[in-house]
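Example 384.
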Amino acid sequence: MDLTWSAEEDAFRAEARSWLETNLAAWRAELGAEPRSGDTREGFAQHLDWERRLFADRWAVVSWAPEHGGRGASLWEWLLFEEEYYRAGAPPRITQNGIFLLAPSIYEFGTPEQQDGILRRLAGAEDLWCQGWSEPNAGSDLASVTSCAQRVDGGWLLNGQKTWTTRGAFCTHLFGLFRTDPDSARHKGLTYLLVPLDTDGVTVRGFGRLDGDEGFAEVFFDDAFLADDAVPGGVVLGQPEGGWAVAMATAGSERGLTLRSPGRFLATAERLVELCRDRGDDGLRRRAATAWMHADAYQQQTLATVTKLAAGAKAGAEASLTKLWWSELDIELHAIALDLLGPEAELEGPWSKGWQFALSGPIYAGTNEIQRNIAAERLLGLPR
Ligand SMILES: Cc1cc2nc3c(=O)[nH]c(=O)nc-3n(C[C@H](O)[C@H](O)[C@H](O)COP(=O)(O)OP(=O)(O)OC[C@H]3O[C@@H](n4cnc5c(N)ncnc54)[C@H](O)[C@@H]3O)c2cc1C
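Predicted structure in complex with flavin-adenine dinucleotide:
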């Protein structure tokens, strides 16, 4: 690893920092109050406005090709942007399922027509994508999905139900896994489909979470006809019946590099250190220092991963280790903050809200038990 930044990279960071400072201040001033959570209907609209500002000045997807709204930045520069983004306290990305999960798979498996027709609209938050994998009886065991798509003249007939679709209640499109060969079992016979949510026969039913946010949805398909050309370039991503491989690539992005970059945790660790300045005993301060070092170590680990990816390697099963790392780190950082705050932690605030969300980290993107199984079997070669 070469841990020095070049003059161009330093200049890139400075430009990002200055843009974020100016534009965040302007956005907040126009809102006139703290933005609401992006998982509420009102907050989602506020965050959409923010996303469009990012896109207008080409900060939404810095590492993408210019024709898709990016700057053609390197992975290193993307990491720098992420660091600056969270350091500035900019809001969580409501477009994240599209830009961080779906888009890398569109780049890898999509046709040029799909890339040109989907990516730019996705980056500009014109189309908002949610992830339709989980079903009432298929979570950890994703290969047991029963939602199906039957081939008919000019398209597919969809039936079944998806659940836990994050921000599904506010999105316009869904990417999902459907069984297209009814005689197939498990990982075979699945197709990765791109579905506009306004398709006739699709019902999106939002429901609330325990923390009061309301973005989750169940999505029902009742003889919904999905025309082949409902999405530019076609509704199948990859090959029909080859959906599992595409889904695993998407899962690699979710668990590995793109969804939770180190910038997010470095910023939280810095805020934790600030919180220690006028509170806490030696024991708590020592825990905070240890957690700060864990965040720093996560960054070093990510730099090693990017070094390998930049040399052409694929993330593979190692993404499971990354997922274990970030999800447990997030809980550690927030648990210490709550201990530092004492009774104050019970008041609604960024730390208590962050703690509640951190608790879901070991569940979404595949539970941590499943990640440990993957690491045991695929990295350590232990028996099933
Ligand atoms: C905040 C949040 C956002 C989410 N967003 C989305 C989304 O946008 N789209 C989507 O499709 N899904 C989403 N999910 C759903 C998520 O992917 C599932 O909750 C997760 O995969 C677990 O599935 P499950 O809830 O059915 O639990 P189950 O699979 O029923 O698991 C229950 C428990 O059993 C354990 N377990 C299961 N199998 C094994 C095994 N083989 N070995 C050891 N332990 C095992 C699990 O670890 C878990 O503790 C989201 C979940 C959360 C919490």
